Amino acid sequence: MKPLTAAQIRSGYLKFFEQNGHKVMASDSLVPANDPTLLFTGAGMNQFKDMFLGKGTLPYKRIATSQKCLRVPDLDNVGFTARHHTFFEMLGNFSFGDYFKKECIPWIWAFFKDVCGIPAEQMVVTIYQDDDEAFDIWTKQVGLHPDKVFRFGEKENFWPAEAPSKGPNGPCGPCSEIYFDAKPGQPYPDKKGLQSLPDDRFTEVGNCVFTQFDRQSDGSLKPLPQQNIDVGLGLERIAAVLQGAKNNFETELFRPYLDQLGATTGVAYGQDGKRDIRMRRIADHVRAVTFCIADGALPSNEGRGYVVRKILRRAARDGYELGLHKPFLFELVDLVGKLMGDQYPEVRENAAQCRAVIKGEEENFLTVYRQGMAKLDEFLAHTAKPAAGQCTAAGGEFAFTLHDTFGFPVDITQKVMEERGHRLDEAAFEAAMEAQRQRARASMATADAVFTASVAVKLRDAKCAPTVFTGYRELATTSKLIGIVGENDTLLTFAKAGQKVLLVTASSPFYAQGGGQVGDRGVIRCGLGEAQVTNTTAMDGFHLHHAVVASGQLDVGSVADLAVDETARRATERNHTATHLLHAALKRVLGDHVSQAGSEVSPDRLRFDYTQPEKPTTEHLQRVEDLVNGQILLASATQACVQKLDEARANGFVALFGEKYGETVRTLQVGDFSRELCGGTHVANTGNIGSFRIVAETAVAAGTRRVEAVTGFVAIELARQERAQLAGLANALKVPATKVGERVQELTEELKKVRRDLDKALAPDLGVELGKLRAAAVHKDGVHTVVFQRPGMQGKDAQELLRLAQKELDPFAGVVLSLVDGECHVVAAVSPKLVAKVKAGDLVKQLAGLLGGGGGGRPEAAQGKGKDGARLPEAAAAAAGLFVSAGLR
Questions:
Q1: Alpha helices, DSSP H only, in 409-517?
Q2: Sign of CA dihedral 365, 366, 368, 369
Q3: Which of 51, 130, 503, 677 is at a distance of 20 to 30 A from 564, taking alpha carbons?
Q4: Which pLDDT score, from 0 to 100, does residue 447 have?
Q5: What's phi and psi for 615, nearest 5 deg?
Q6: 53-57, 392-396, 865-869 — which is least confidently predicted?
Q7: Of the candidates 227, 303, 326, 249, the residue with the CA atom closest to the CA atom of residue 83
Q8: Under 8 Å between Cβ of 422 and 395
Q9: Is-contact 521 489, C-beta < 8 A?
Q10: Would you call the peptide bond into 189 cis, given omega within 30 degrees of 0 as the criterion?
Q11: What is the mean predicted confidence (pLDDT) over 505-511?
Q12: How far apart are CA 274 and CA 521, in angstroms?
């Protein structure tokens, strides 16, 4: 019988639990929507936080999902072990105060035995040491022999781990894990003193958490009024078990990546153990970064973007070590879509964006890699060499910084250090790595975060119903003030003048920030009290009006008059509809690869980030601007409607990058020009936009660019300002406005001529300088070397001086250091017969790095620049030292 594929395992699991009364729900995004305590979704239960507290709004007590997850605490193990991953899928079934152990355990057993077809003799289970209830269910109800049930302590079989003795306080409970036994028939390990099952024989394939206690401050475990079930099964592990693969990477989930990498590098997977590790890591990491980017987590230097960039650069570095010295990861994105797109359509829909972003990041990495080498050179230039016969350890923390920030391989750092007479302080490096792992684990911790009540939960506890939004049809309404939230998310009964609060009303015309559109501002009045609303956000259905009480007092339960700032809202609507037109125009001009990567729509301007590898030309932007203004002049009607997500996609409506949608969505069609899913507010027809002007186009990240534009009255005011500026220039230049450009060109040419004449007048007498250089040269065994400091000498003059010196003093190696207008110029020249001992490019790279800059060139000639003029004497001494090290002095 052919083993089940991962897709069959996934669908079989969801179907099994659907037949057992569970609602099958879609995976949550990797970017948690309403939980700032988590960088990424790391478990299936994350999206059901409020449901576990008994305060959620979902109408289901039983749910099953296949959740995409990302975890990074064990990042350094990926590729080395059989089962560690960054991105993985977790199959989960959950009960919120419904069924418990006696239903859960037999169902999980039936899934593995009947759906997956794993023989009973090849499964064992573990339970918490005091969980007699679970023991009885496994042995009496399921029928397992007691020898196949292992009891372990709170570190292995309690969630959170060690909660009974170490906390945290709050909901917790024992767990039972299911293991596949790769060596059935052999004697089981002796249970006496056994702390965990040996992983060379047993593979964990599932974990059932029974949340039944509330840990108190005194360490006691109080029974919970609502007992919950949280089951998590690793899809990749189950696939490896069923397919007889020796590790997860040899299943059909990963093998295609390994095969493609083998074809690209010319060395097939399985031919070289060290190369195999890198190939496995690339296969894991390309899945992770593709899913992250598809969910809107773009590479950056902070937060989750930092994690994405780190994972991506590690994969790029592995490719570099495999001989792939140009971008290659982006070519694997389509393979991710092919293998995963049926279950997760976002990786196909956003493939163009993922390719563009990843390719841009790879190109940047190649530069960063070279910068890492330059930083290592600079570090070693400042590190004293150990005495002969000694090898003092150094550079552990520095090596960690290169590794962690730049993705620079520590093995290369170690090798280079050894070649230059140093030894890496591995203990310091490992200490820094462990500290980073602890920070990563802390950032991914779920226990405290999962069971912390949100503002929305507190409002529901106070019997508040979600806000009804009326802002599509009106900008003012009368409602009821149903909640006031003060500092530390405390619910108040009233608020007085001067207090900053969140106001919650039964209905509201205020648009809550979302989809790139800023939240509305305006005023809320209750009796004699008045509050100025500065922003509006939403949380789990509640509109939170961020307000400052301007006068009087506002009381919960009182009648509230709400009025949106109409001027600001109308301006925002103009910009929002213009953003849709801009997106469509960019696609028409630049190509279908253009996809939204983010946006911000406010009353003053619009900002649109999009995927595009190269900078668009001025002509491109003019065409885009003309297309948008053409649609404005047509005064095309906008049409918004609500429809099912699948129906909207089938009708050609574009889903926005990084947004999460429910089963029904709001769509916006602008004439025949644009179709997008959008819950924002818009003009009735494009003529209301008035006019559209692009004011800036810049790069914001690798493969991602940004357009900033204005519309309506802001565009008119900008034109007025520019007209006034032009008039001022014309007056200063004493020419008509139409002649300003021509006059500026004339003055530019005149200035260039004056500068050329000045440079000529100030140019050094190279004959005199050559005499000085000759006098400073050091002679040894017929070789001439010189380190010549000449303040004020331009780089081109230094090059010519060294050329003359080399002609006269060959064989010759020389360096000129010069400070010009705050910049340090470094120029080097080496005779061809000496490049085996010292290279000009290496000289410049190290010396410029020492001066806080960079540079390079050919072995015979090179140049660079630095910023730290105070260190020029130090650079001169370093240059002399390099000649000594090369045996030329």
A1: 410-419, 426-444, 447-450, 455-461
A2: positive
A3: 677
A4: 38
A5: -65, 125
A6: 392-396
A7: 249
A8: yes
A9: no
A10: no
A11: 97
A12: 59
